[in-house]
Amino acid sequence: MNELPPLRTVVERAGYRRQRAMGGILILRLLDSRRETIDAWFEDCNTLMSNWQPDQPLRYLHDIRQAEQVTPHATECVARVLRRMRHIPVSDGRGAILLHNQTLAALLGTFFKRRPQANWQIRFFEDEAEALRWLAQ
């Protein structure tokens, strides 16, 4: 069994929780797919993006295993976050998305197009410990 590192909860609202792992890795967990949960996640993403500094490495894990239901509201919120992310000055970024549904991974993968001016890598995982190891590299 893969042991996970200790996590510190930073934000907890509705069915959403943001945690911090060693190395500054942010973990954004959606604990269900209710509208309130999606809205709490969306608001927190906007807060994080507005405070990001260009010289900070960005390491995050979106845990959507409990919220793998595709709804128009969730799709719109994800698209809005991704549009805004394009304008965040990140020189060293890695994002992991933790899920069970590989069909959803394929769908989400269509949203992530590599841009020459952005230095991000995004990968999909089913195992949290594996995702955190990759983010820590």
Q: What is the CATH class designation?
A: Alpha Beta
Give the % helix: 25-40%
Shape: globular
CATH superfamily: STAS domain
Q: Count every beta strand, where a strand is a DSSP E run of 2 or more residues.
A: 6
The CATH architecture can be given as 2-Layer Sandwich
Arrangement of strands in the largest sheet: 1-2-3-4-5-6
Number of helices: 4
> What's the assembly state of these chains?
single chain
Specify the structural class. alpha/beta
In percent, how much strand structure appears in the residues? 25-35%
Which residues form runs of ≥5 with pLDDT under 50? none
Largest sheet entry: 6 strands, mixed
Question: What order do the helices and strands follow?
Answer: EEEHEHEHEH
What is the CATH topology descriptor?
Answer: Transcription Regulator spoIIAA
What is Rg?
A: 14 Å
- On the 0-100 scale, what is the average pLDDT? 87
Count of discrete structural domains: 1
Ends apart, CA distance between termini: 21 Å
Describe the overall structure.
- The chain has a single domain, classed as Transcription Regulator spoIIAA (2-Layer Sandwich), CATH 3.30.750.24.
- It has helices at about 35-50, 70-85, 100-110, 130-135, and strands at about 10-15, 15-20, 25-30, 60-65, 95-100, 120-125.
- The protein has a six-stranded mixed β-sheet with strand order 1-2-3-4-5-6.
- The chain has about 140 residues and is an alpha/beta fold.
- The longest helix is centred in the first third of the chain and has 16 residues, at about 35-50.
- Helix 1 (about 35-50) links the parallel strand 3 (about 25-30) and strand 4.
- Helix content is about 35%, strand content about 25%.
- It contains four helices and six strands; from the N terminus they run βββαβαβαβα.
- Helix 1 packs parallel to helix 2.
